[in-house]
Design goal:
Length: 215
């Protein structure tokens, strides 16, 4: 009985672990609330879609993972028109090797083809990377900022991404911030992109997704 009780307590702690407190933006102030998603129901909320990979509700969070047969990192989207914005998300690496939060430009906003930029989190480092132009074979991704952080599997972290005009700031509670600037960052974006990479059994848990206009 004691072992069963301990197991139940551990399950409760995993699902209701205290997340880090809100991170205050530095590029402006939070304006209109655009999205709050806590994944409290049994089903995946409306509007969350996958390009490749698998996703499901687990322990009161959204678990996303790569599927080896896709031969592509797992990619998942939430359509939400944004431009100057702040997005805060809690995440936990559940064996995954990489976790990205990224953005595309709205069609017609840029001459380049492909993605806009990503905040990339790996096991011992993180970065802000501007995506290459897929229409130009000589184009390469540009790493604007990077840092060394040991991200522990099974531990929750809180990430805030601010984008105002040409400026992007990514902050992880207790781990500092990265800053980047590029002319293309100011464009309109059609939504959020989350990516998870690693073996089929590995994944990333995300929770408490909040998006605000940044004034």
């Amino acid at each position: 009985m004691r072992s069963l009780t301990a197991f139940l307590i551990s399950c409760i702690l995993v699902s209701s672990v205290a997340r880090a407190e809100d991170i205050s933006p530095t590029l402006g102030k939070k304006g209109k609330e655009l999205l709050v998603e806590k994944f409290e129901g049994a089903d995946i909320p409306k509007g969350w879609t996958k390009n490749v990979g698998t996703m499901k509700i687990q322990d009161g969070a959204l678990r996303i993972s790569e599927l080896a047969s896709d031969k592509h990192v797992g990619a998942f989207r939430k359509a939400l028109p944004i431009q100057d914005m702040a997005i805060q998300v809690d995440f936990m690496l559940d064996g995954a090797k990489t976790f990205n939060v990224g953005f595309d430009p709205v069609a017609g906003e840029l001459k380049k083809k492909g993605h806009l930029y990503n905040v990339i989190i790996n096991g011992d480092r993180w970065s802000i990377s501007e995506s290459n132009d897929k229409a130009n074979p000589d184009s390469k991704a540009i790493v604007h900022a990077k840092g060394a952080v040991k991200f522990e599997s099974g531990k929750w972290y809180t990430l805030l991404i601010e984008n105002k005009g040409e400026n992007v700031v990514a902050t992880i509670a207790g781990q500092g911030a990265l800053k980047a600037k590029a002319a293309d960052f100011k464009v309109k974006k059609p939504g959020l992109i989350f990516r998870a990479g690693g073996p089929d059994t590995a994944g990333v848990l995300i929770d408490n997704v909040q998006v605000f206009e940044l004034e």
